[in-house]
Design goal:
Elements lengths: L2 H29 L12 H22 L4 H22 L6 H40 L6 H37 L9 H24 L1 E4 L2 E4 H4 L3 H79 L7 H16 L9 H17 L4 E6 L10 H25 L6 E9 L2 E9 L26 H11 L3 E7 L2 E9 L9
Parallel strand pairs: 3-4
Antiparallel strand pairs: 1-2, 4-5, 5-7, 6-7
Helix pairs in contact: 1-2, 1-5, 2-3, 3-4, 4-5, 4-6, 4-8, 5-8, 6-8, 8-9, 8-11, 10-11, 11-12
Length: 497
């Protein structure tokens, strides 16, 4: 008599607690992929969890009222998926193909965790009841009241273990998916959606099959399928856990594919950029050296002509002397603003400086501490790739800052130094202080619209640095972005990676 009230209480409290945890997991899962709609107090997640808990409770009553027919099971699954989809649409900006993956995956993980737990923990509960019966048969309980308390305690412990396992088998896989799915803003296409959905759909189908065949009727007596085939007690959980693993590995594999494709695209563009820059920079060095020599000779020639004119009578050749003075001043204008010791770097800095001045009139570019040794082994075009991409990114960041805050200070500071055989470059620039957290751990995401064609500047810098056994790092200190590049002062391996 003492068993029923406790059993009824457990049957209400524990499922309610499980639904509460499922609601939390749902808003956590959706919230990490989808942008929440604007509700008062930003309560989208709480409202989504509340609606799920209410709907899930209502579905549990439908389960008790059902007759076990497969049509009831299929109908309940469809209704569950519609509820999950409705919550996504109502409380999140969910009009993305990725939403289908989120809905099906959440339901699949929940069902797999449920069936796995019921089979494994149910075995423990059955064994515990058999143990109490064995004890009672040998007179170990002095009264029926003690036996009832033992049974109630065992029942409560079994249910607690079961629902705790269900909660863990839901939360931990979802957390793993959230952690592995780094490119959450990536817009997947239909083929990619099919790739992602297949493992979850297989898991749902497997759970539906178990729901239909779990209970068999023989001679009017209901029996569980693994009571008839004991091997299924081990085989079914193994198959379910393998299905869950395929969901997790599918998500991780998809993200790895995106990352590798992005790196491969960046490497291809880098190789094309290198080939293009090779010719330009060789020609740049030749022209720069020729101009410097010609300018030196012309200045000497102008100086000699000026002294010859000064030796003439006063007022004679005045117009020619004025012309030569103007010509000399024009030559002074050809003097490069930046002198780093490397002709390619000097030319590139001057070009980017005038480009930045056209776009951002108030910008300052300080390269006084950017100096390169005479015995620099790093190829000029590799140095140009690093400086060119770094300056492009810095100019773009300063432009966004001035666009949002016209009175803000826009600056770029470059410096370099040798530490043993290592060349260290540092580029600092002002920016608006906003860095997106959705990129990879090694690279920042682009803010440009075409993310496939852009956003590879840092990737190019890193690949070039790795040719010289070096690396690249970045950090933000307040509203200053700092890029650091370290390379060995030696000939690179030439493979770009």
């Amino acid at each position: 008599m003492g068993v029923c009230p406790v059993s009824e209480a457990i049957g209400i409290v524990f499922p309610a607690f499980l639904f509460l945890l499922q609601g939390y997991c749902l808003q956590y899962f959706y919230g990490n992929f989808l942008e929440a709609r604007k509700f008062p107090g930003k309560w989208s997640g709480v409202l989504a969890a509340g609606v799920y808990i209410t709907a899930r409770t209502a579905l549990s009553f439908l389960e008790f009222a059902g007759n076990g027919d497969y049509r009831t099971a299929v109908g309940k699954l469809i209704l569950s998926l519609l509820i999950l989809g409705g919550i996504a649409v109502c409380f999140y900006r969910a009009f993305r193909l990725l939403t289908f993956f989120l809905v099906v995956t959440f339901q699949a993980v929940a069902d797999i965790g449920r069936y796995t737990t019921v089979i494994l923990v149910g075995e423990i509960g059955d064994g515990l009841l058999e143990f109490w019966s064995w004890c009672a048969g040998r007179g170990m309980f002095s009264s029926g009241r003690i036996l009832g308390a033992a049974i109630n305690g065992g029942l409560a412990a079994g249910w607690l273990l079961e629902y705790a396992a269900m909660a863990l088998l839901l939360y931990l896989p979802l957390r793993k998916i959230v952690g592995d799915f780094r490119e959450k803003e990536y817009e997947i296409n239909r083929t990619e959606l099919l790739f992602l959905l297949t493992p979850a759909a297989v898991g749902l189908t497997l759970c539906m099959l178990l729901r239909i065949i779990m209970v068999t009727v023989e001679d009017g007596v209901s029996r569980l399928v693994y009571d008839r085939y004991p091997i299924l007690r081990a085989l079914l959980p193994a198959v379910l856990l393998l299905s869950l693993l395929s969901i997790l590995q599918g998500s991780k594999l998809f993200q790895d594919m995106i990352f590798r494709n992005r790196e491969r695209s960046g490497r291809i563009i880098l190789e094309k950029q290198v080939e293009s820059l090779k010719g330009h920079m060789v020609e740049m060095e030749r022209v720069y050296s020729g101009l410097r020599s010609m300018k030196h000779d012309m200045k000497n020639t102008l100086a000699v002509m000026g002294r010859l004119l000064e030796g003439g009578a006063a007022g004679e050749n005045k117009e020619l002397q004025t012309y030569l003075e103007e010509w000399n001043r024009d030559f002074e204008k050809l003097e490069l603003k930046f002198q780093t010791g490397n002709p390619v770097a000097d030319t590139l800095l001057n070009m980017k400086y005038h480009e930045a001045k056209r776009e951002i009139p108030g910008i300052t570019l300080d390269a006084d501490r950017l100096l390169f040794p005479r015995e620099l082994e790093i190829l000029s075009y590799d140095l140009g790739i690093i400086l060119g991409n770094a300056l492009d990114n810095a100019i773009e960041a300063c432009g966004r800052l001035i666009e949002r805050e016209p009175e803000a200070e826009a600056f770029i500071r470059l410096s370099s130094w040798m530490k043993g055989k290592l060349l260290i470059l540092k580029v600092e620039n002002s920016f608006d202080g906003k860095l997106s957290g959705m990129g990879t751990k090694r690279l920042l995401p682009t803010n440009k619209t075409d993310k496939n064609a852009h956003g590879i500047g840092l990737s190019n810098i890193r690949c070039t640095a790795e040719k010289y056994g070096g690396t690249m790092d970045y950090k933000a200190v307040g509203r200053v972005f700092i890029l650091s590049v370290m390379m060995k002062n030696e000939r690179g391996n030439g493979n770009g990676a």
